[in-house]
């Protein structure tokens, strides 16, 4: 296929995804009319080939991840997605086929998550591909759920299942671990799918706004992100590993190799929600999460202390992980 | 200097630039409360080392350019800057000194342009540095000035002086042209300064909202951007080169080498405003621009036609430039 120029690329692949205020991406900016009585919530996350994804991952999966990691932040803040600006730094060897697949993934992501494409930029850069997304959502005025506001005594909950993507990343890599052999094909596919395709918990946003005291999405592993959430205020946490929600596939990996627990807790890419809730609000939060169809499990409590959060297993053994146990940076 | 981790970098260099809704950049998202009765205006432009700037340009100049090219889009749309999200893809050899200089440039830009830092992301990428900025501004509801809405008969105006940065880029390069010798040190410095430091025309935004029919900023050269503005609707333009506003330095370069005119018209990086105005509104626009302290010159007229805009010189000779005569892409 001949390569179109930048305007041609935009018209062919991105304009069909544009929102009402974006005028088919033919202008240098888009307008967005916020809902009456709403605050906007803004977040930006970039993903880099070879760092956050494999260069030969399917392009539609890469697009869904680029959107999904940002929508996950919005969901954790209690926000409803409105729109996105996507900046692509393309290496010299980009192909139109790749871009067509990427645009298809954006379309899938927009349908699943909500919101429209509002703009972006396409530049050439002689390095790995860099995909930067700014996501804009809205909450009722003053309603954004903060990260740092958990209090001692709050209960800690997580959505979905923890650690699947981290195991999926190992399976996707060029040298899968020995325990990979203990998993069947369906398990492997399910775990790699979790690595490729974040499922941001948008459906949980209203319940978080109503009942959570603090929330964040889990992108760098539960252990590190929990430490981040409680940092610097004399707060720690006790986590009961028996309450940790695991998928069947992750459970089987853990049975094959107990050391997988560290991967589950520190591996990253969960894109589940970690939240703190006052004890008296826990039942209401769990009930609303259930009504929204989002599994939510209570896994521990915020405690007073300056040590890293403790993770206690069935035998009573306690493990702690330093802050920043995982970082994409 | 030891390299801090990502959180340390953010706390040290970027948190002091954060706006009121950004909570010291300690959360994964920021809130923004739009003004009553306002629309938001959103734009994203990235700059890449070796493409949009020289890798050894001063880091504070690079930061001012990254912000400035985005603010220039807001100004052309009639918008007042509110905030920015900045995504940095850092190559392996980044230094904290560089980052300190970059943050200082961001501070200078924020002071000059208005608005606060709302968030962003810092990632590692083994390639040239990529700096992506999303800028958010506001206009009274429905007030964004569009790019594609000029009508036949409208007068065409440009702010400031045209072509300085394009000449500055030649002077900044490793093999300056022969005519560079005809310029004194002050001229060279002034022209390179225009290349390094866009001066987005924020002061013109209210007058554009009130009187312009269409506007865009000139980033890829007057000739190409004018063609872009008029594309696809049976519209062309006649430009009188004698009316083109030139700086003294650019005029002296042109005297030394008449071929410099092509550079002035197609070289890019002006970050001036190109606007179309109904003939009956021209005087009001010029008067308000003068009151705002922004030089604005009427250089031609939108005409019916499908040819590229014509540029007529003092001898009556007409030159046309194809669309896309310049592209950073």
Largest sheet of chain A: 7 strands, mixed
Could you report the average pLDDT of chain A, rounded to the nearest whole number? Answer: 94
What kind of oligomer do you see? homodimer
- What value does the Rg of chain A take, in angstroms? 20 Å
Helix and strand arrangement:
Two copies of one chain form a homodimer.
Chain A: H1 6-14, E1 30-32, E2 38-48, H2 59-76, E3 80-90, H3 96-113, E4 116-124, E5 130-140, E6 155-159, H4 164-172, H5 185-196, H6 205-211, E7 212-218, H7 222-230, E8 235-240, H8 248-256, H9 260-266, E9 272-277, H10 282-291, E10 296-304, E11 310-312, E12 318-320
Parallel strand pairs in A: 3-4, 8-11
Antiparallel strand pairs in A: 2-5, 3-5, 6-9, 6-10, 7-9, 8-10, 11-12
Helix pairs in contact in A: 2-3, 4-5, 4-9, 6-10
Task: Summarize the structure in words.
Two copies of one chain form a homodimer. Chain A has 329 residues and is of the alpha+beta class. Chain A has two domains: 6-140, 60s Ribosomal Protein L30, Chain: A (2-Layer Sandwich), CATH 3.30.1330; 155-320, PurM-like C-terminal domain (Phosphoribosyl-aminoimidazole Synthetase, Chain A, domain 2), CATH 3.90.650.10. Chain A contains ten helices and twelve strands. In chain A, strands 7-9-6-10-8-11-12 form a seven-stranded mixed β-sheet. In chain A, strand 11 and strand 12 (318-320) form a beta hairpin. In chain A, helix 4 (164-172) crosses helix 5, helix 4 packs across helix 9 and helix 6 runs antiparallel to helix 10. The longest helix of chain A has 18 residues, at 59-76. Chain A starts with 5 loop residues before the first helix and ends in a 9-residue tail after the last strand. The relative contact order of chain A is 0.16. The model of chain A has no long low-confidence stretch (mean pLDDT 94). Strand 2 (38-48) of chain A pairs antiparallel with strand 1 (30-32) of chain B.
């Amino acid at each position: 296929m001949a390569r179109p120029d930048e305007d041609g690329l935009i018209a062919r692949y991105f304009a069909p995804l544009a929102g009402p205020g974006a005028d088919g991406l033919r202008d240098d900016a888009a307008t967005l009319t916020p809902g009456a009585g709403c605050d906007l919530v803004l977040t930006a996350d970039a993903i880099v080939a070879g760092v956050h994804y494999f260069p030969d991952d399917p392009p539609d999966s890469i697009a869904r991840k680029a959107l999904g990691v940002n929508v996950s932040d919005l969901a954790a803040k209690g926000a409803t997605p409105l729109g996105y600006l996507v900046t692509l730094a393309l290496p010299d060897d980009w192909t139109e086929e790749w871009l067509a697949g990427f645009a298809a993934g954006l379309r899938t992501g927009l349908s699943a998550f909500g919101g429209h494409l509002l703009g972006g930029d396409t530049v050439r850069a002689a390095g790995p591909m860099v995909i930067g997304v700014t996501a804009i959502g809205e909450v009722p005025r003053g309603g954004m759920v903060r990260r740092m506001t958990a209090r001692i005594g709050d209960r800690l909950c997580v959505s979905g299942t923890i650690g699947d993507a981290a195991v999926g990343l190992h399976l996707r890599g060029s040298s899968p671990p020995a325990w990979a052999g203990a998993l069947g094909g369906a398990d492997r596919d399910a775990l790699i799918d979790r690595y490729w395709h974040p499922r941001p918990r948008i459906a949980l946003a209203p319940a978080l706004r109503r009942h959570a005291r603090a929330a964040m999405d889990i992108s760098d592993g539960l252990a590190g992100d929990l430490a981040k959430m409680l940092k610097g205020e004399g707060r720690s946490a006790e986590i009961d590993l028996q309450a940790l929600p695991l998928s069947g596939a992750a459970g089987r990996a853990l049975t094959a190799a107990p050391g997988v627990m560290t991967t589950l807790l520190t591996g990253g890419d969960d894109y589940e929600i970690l939240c703190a809730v006052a004890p008296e609000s826990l039942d209401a939060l769990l009930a609303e999460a259930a009504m929204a169809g989002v599994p939510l499990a209570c896994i521990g409590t915020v405690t007073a202390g300056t040590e890293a959060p403790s993770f206690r297993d069935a035998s009573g053994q306690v493990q702690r992980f330093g802050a920043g146990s995982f970082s994409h940076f």
